[in-house]
Amino acid sequence: MILVMFDMDGTLIDTQALITEHMAATFSGAGLEAPGPEESRRVIGLSLPVALGRLAKSDDTGLIERLVESYKSHYRASVVTDEGREGLFPGALAALERLRLWPDTQLGIATGKGLNGVHRILGLHGIEDYFVTLQTPDHNPSKPHPGMMYRAMSETGATAEQTVIVGDTTFDIEMGKAAGAKAIAVSWGYHETAELLEAGADAVIDRYEDLDAAIRTVLELSDA
Ligand SMILES: [Mg+2]
User: Fold this and answer.
1) Where are the CATH 1.10.150 domain residues in the chain?
2) Using CA of residue 106, residue 111, residue 114, residue 119, what is the dihedral sign?
3) 216 C-alpha vs ligand 1 centroid, how far in Å?
4) pLDDT in tens, 116-136
5) For the segment 72-98, what is each residue's pLDDT rounded down to a tens digit?
6) How far is the CA of 16 from the centre of ligand 1 (A)?
7) How far is residue 124's CA from residue 213's CA, in Å, rounded to a whole number?
């Protein structure tokens, strides 16, 4: 048995422009200084309350709740007009199609996105059936807490030794390693390669075509 978990934003789908725009609108709307694109990019992958609290440099739960609600309303308002701005990264679809044909292999999602957004985006790309386990902050602590990994492993019956997370941020790598699983970093996302390695990534890939080999290597599978 093999369990391959995927992060969404920055790993499977390219949502940086959309998210940083919504972040800026959220802060401006609250009369706060809007974070720059680079600052927003750093927190993509965390749950909304954690990400917005970090950007606001505040732990005022009232303020954070208002920002979360505002962000969600910007997001909802844009869902129709922004269709097509949440594209899969090059090679992602082909890689998923290859991996789901691997024997005794299951795919899952571990994301900072809410479950509704996950269903919508997977549906948009016609890949909802590819994933047997969907882990979100609706039922788990935010990354880098390992809760999403533990729950995915328990749902699928995979052990930590059989499990790998593929992600673009240190939050993914730290989550995977904390759960005792392997972690493959992708270099096309929102954190730098050097920090992903420092966080403990077992491998870094620069294109989806290299994912299969990286999984075999980190899980120590034979090339059969
Ligand atoms: Mg990500």
Assistant:
1) 16-78
2) negative
3) 22
4) 999 999 999 999 999 999 999
5) 999 888 876 666 789 999 999 999 999
6) 10
7) 28
In the structure, ligand 1 is a single-atom ion and the residues with CB under 5 Å from it are: 7, 9-10, 45, 168-169
CA of 156 from ligand 1 middle (Å) equals 22
User: How many percent of the chain have pLDDT more than 90?
Assistant: 93
Fold of the domain spanning 16-78:
DNA polymerase; domain 1 (1.10.150)
173 CA to centre of ligand 1 in angstroms? 10
Query: What spacing in Å lies between the alpha carbon of 31 and ligand 1's midpoint?
Result: 28
224 CA → ligand 1 middle, Å:
31
Buried-exposed string 41-70: b where 16+ CB fall within 10 A, e elsewhere = bbbbbbbbbbbbbbbbeeeeeeebeebbeb
Instruction: Find, among 152, 143, 149, 132, the residue nearest to 170 by Cα.
Output: 143
Q: In the CATH hierarchy, which fold is given to the domain comprising 2-14+87-218?
A: Rossmann fold (3.40.50)
The Cα 157–Cα 170 span in angstroms is 26
